[in-house]
Here is the input.
Amino acid sequence: MYRVSLEFVRPGMILGKAIINDNGTILLNKGVKLNDFYIDKLIKLGYDSVFIEDTDTTDITVEDDVREQTRLKAIKNISSLFSIPIKDMKEAKKHTVSEITKSIESGKIKAKLANSKHLRNIAAISHEIVEEILDNKMMSGLVSFKRKSDFTYKHCVDVTIISIALADKFLYDKNKIIELAKGTMLHDIGRMLIDKSLYEEPRKLTKEEFELIKKHVELGYVILKDIAGIGVLAPHIVYQHHEQQNGFGYPRGLKGDNTMPLPRKEIKKGYIMPLAEIVYAANMYDALVSPRAYRSAYTPDQAFFIMKRLAGSHINREVLKMMLEIIPAFPLGTTVIITSGRFKNFIGVVSKINRENLSRPVVRVMFNERRNRVEPFEIDLKQNPHITISGLLL
Here is the structure.
């Protein structure tokens, strides 16, 4: 199978991976033959691409980092838990941030969250996801298919998966990683109290609107702090996941020192806690490779190119270095274009990952420079250092 933009999907193509909506329900299952109605519906819903089963790529199996059942449970419970503050504060978008905060502190939201079965479920699911991911030598590099208009719940799960894998590589123990997972699953809960249109409208925000969006971390912290079932670490993950190494992040302008975020690393006053440095990087990667209302998704190699430019100033250098060691720049099943060498401008699909060098995969060439189908043949980039590739979404 390989990934294809919905613009190039044609009736009769077979869906290679299930399409799951924002609330965790399967819209179209793997193996469905796509028709004009399905294609048009997916485009209207805001999806940008799908995986297609193809006779020339039947041996390329793209596995998720966690089981589909686990992912579905996580999305459904996050969606249900996040709906609690929405129901209690239907008019929140008409209030100032200080008024929302007062309502949270004095209202019943905390009690409802603390007593929610969904909160207990998230704690259990955090444990499940950790068990499924620990000791993975390499991540898939792929994230959920998200709609342009709303990606919050799936985003929380994807950031959790990446953060867990990174924390494991930095030698955190399982119990601490489970606490981290609870925080990342809930890291954007404060967004529920911000006017949804600010995230969904494809336009440049005013300075005032952007400042309001930035308040989601403080609101999330206020919602979650002091809830026993969540613990102490999770609210601080929520509070610090937008802080930057240079001190220009928000909400408190904490700094980082670009050293490894190891378990015994001292947290100095005015500095970001190590696990939040991990979440910052995971959050940025998933945001970049997901479509947004105002732009299309970046390919993983494009996302890493952007992140490398921000290493040291925004992202902890050591965290990014670790990401590059466990997440392929060209994930299995993704489409690439050859940018140099004899087959320049030919298009292929990543058919195998070289574990010793994640940026030099095996590419199955399937289209010539005119995008006409050719008899497939493979190029191992590890053996052909003169050939370069770039991510492409057909």
